[in-house]
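Repro:
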Amino acid sequence: MTYTEASMDALRSAGDELADATVATLFERGEVGKFNTLMRYFSTTGQDLPEGLPEVAREYLHATSTPPAWVDWGEMEKARLFFIDNNVHISTALSFASMPACYVVPHVARLLSATHSLKYPSKRMAETGQFTVYLMRPDAFEAGSRFIPAAQKVRLLHASIRHHLRREGRWDTENLGTPICQEDMIGGQMMFSIQVLDALHRLGIHMSTEGADSYYYAWRVVGAMLGVDQNHVPVDLQQARRFSDLYMTRHMGPSEEGAHLTRQLIDLYEEVVPGTFFDPVVGALIRYLIGDTCADWLQVPRTPWDTAVKAAPALLGVLETIEDRSPLGAWALDRLGHFTTLFELSSLTRGRVMHYAIPEQLKKDYGISSTVPPTKRWTPPAPTTPF
């Protein structure tokens, strides 16, 4: 698949027809409040829909209640095992590489600043972390799981943001295109997939080519369930690199909103880290993972830790070698990673289940992995656009 400036421009005018029509109807009929109230009680796959749910919402939920017919369940299981092996590293990459990558795209940062996410950064991070954990559970698509309802609600949340920004005239559609357009949704998919893999590689994490491919595949499935037009989505990591590079070079740059969001992200994690001695590590890790140019655009402070954090790959490399060579070591590190991820998530959620609502205003879970140590190490596809 070839991506050009013209083909990317075409994606900026398209939203999500099904979700947009559903949200528009709910607002026209004054049923948003009723929908949100009832949907708080709908949180697991296979659960009966609440009585009194607006008909247009019922039709939407039925239409989006199953994963795409093309899903390869073998690939999804490989992705789950990859997540188990790397969960704490993936959480780190999502927090300190993927989210800042979102903020370095000015119109995305501006969009986030127009929603409640700017005031409540912990809520956005908690929702992202919880959503990923739901996806990577072994029963993610089975009765009783929370992933599909979460995906259905996130899709409506995106549609509601488009609805509000258009209706209130708070978005320059002529110059910026549709808010949360197809290009931005695919771009977001790249930030949570290939850019996560890039961050893991930069941290020195040992990954197999097969595991990286499966992880990317899982996010293709997510994209389809969030309303991304699969006719334009990169089908593999080579195409993903081309799309991601072109998307970032088209849009990235400094902005006040991006710097503000980044400051809030740093403050949030500095509160999670006990004491104050290690606080500068948060900014140093962001700078290491996204590079000095982007870090400067986001006004990430420079500290002496910027040099110290570069030793992280060597330290992690030792732990990765232990994991590769020792089944017991692999089990112990997987468990440690699992509990670290749970601690981080519980700190952000404060033990609550995150609810996704339409804003009226703007095998055992973590057993010993069945995967074998990587024999063919994953290396990132070469950049296609000079930065």
